[in-house]
Amino acid sequence: MAKRNSRRRRPEPPGPAGFVVVDKPAGRTSHDVVDAARRWFGTRRVGHLGTLDPQATGVLPLAIRGATKLIPYLADSTKGYDGTIVLGAETDTLDHEGEVLKRHAGSLPDRETVEAALARFKGDIQQIPPMFSAVKKDGVPLHRLARRGEEVEREPKWVTIDEIELTRFEPPEVDVRVLCRAGTYVRVLAADLGEALGCGAHLGGLRRTRSGRFTLEMAWTVEALEAAAEAGKIGSALIEPVEALGFPVHPIRGEQRIRLANGGDLPAEGLHRAPPGTRVSIVDEGGGFLAVGEIRADRRLWPLRVLLAE
């Protein structure tokens, strides 16, 4: 009989749950930042809300401890980006990190032509995921295949660009501001713009300014978070689940809290104007987050995810 592994992971000490927004620096992967956050907060339970390419910077929201269970309830998938597109050259990675495949020999388009082309990308459009991406083909990430020199057929997918604006025009560089939904590749947008203009293009730089309710104004630099952790003040960087979710707040007490802990439903007192399907942040008397609930047609508040204090 095989011996059991006697080296079991020690249980983690209790700690606060919430969200933190990191201003990711260039040159670090999103997983690098997650690993650093595990050290800062003293927990293995850290999850991110959408990766950023290593050379991209900006908003990278992380969920800490029990807040990882709340990620599915962050409904706003809007992303905001400020990007620099370089006209006149195509690369194999669609950004400035790759090898140049083709250079445009003629003159570059004027501002009006670029603005008109950008306008055609607003709304629901199709994009083909880039080979250098985490999208998987038969269980293998495309970027691994690309590094082996392989290229496979990828199915186009629908994405939504809500707003797109030209903010700087200094050819060959043009800056754009993009508001889009999750799943949109700004690298692909840059390459597709170059194709539409007939001159080729690639992404020269990218900074995410928004991810759902999380913005750059909420973000901490890696250096500031490291300093806070060393000073024992890392908890000050956390955004409470109630604020992150943005749901109506419903306080409970006494026996209702016991019922909630056992998975029971609650009366939706004080929520009579909220229609069925409304999601609610259930809190204790002191405002501490306890659970996500949903109002049902019978006017009862049913728990969807209980997150009692550790």
Topology:
Layout lengths: L17 E7 L5 H12 L4 E3 L8 E8 L13 E10 L1 E3 L8 E4 L7 H9 L3 E5 L8 E2 L2 E2 H6 L9 E14 L2 E9 L4 H12 L3 E11 L2 E2 L4 E2 H9 L10 H5 L3 E3 L2 H8 L4 E2 L11 E5 L5 E7 L4 E7 L4
Parallel strand pairs: 1-14, 3-12, 15-17
Antiparallel strand pairs: 1-3, 2-3, 4-11, 4-12, 5-6, 7-10, 8-9, 10-11, 12-13, 16-19, 17-18, 18-19
Helix pairs in contact: 1-5
List keywords for this structure.
310 residues, alpha+beta, Pseudouridine synthase, Archaeosine Trna-guanine Transglycosylase, Chain: A, domain 4, 3 domains, 19 strands, 20% helix, 34% strand, elongated
Shape: elongated
Number of domains: 3
Which superfamily, in CATH terms, is the homologous superfamily of the largest domain? Pseudouridine synthase
Radius of gyration over C-alpha positions, nearest whole angstrom: 23 Å
Q: What is the name of the CATH class of the largest domain?
A: Alpha Beta
Average pLDDT confidence is 90
Second rung of CATH, namely the architecture of the largest domain:
2-Layer Sandwich
- Runs with pLDDT <50, length 5+? none
Q: What would the CATH topology of the largest domain be?
A: Pseudouridine synthase
Largest sheet: 10 strands, mixed
Tell me the number of strands: 19
Element string (H = helix, E = strand): EHEEEEEHEEEHEEHEEEHHEHEEEE
Number of helices: 7
State the secondary-structure class. Answer: alpha+beta
Tell me the span between the first and last alpha carbons: 37 Å
Helix content: 10-25%
Which range does the strand content fall in? Answer: 25-35%
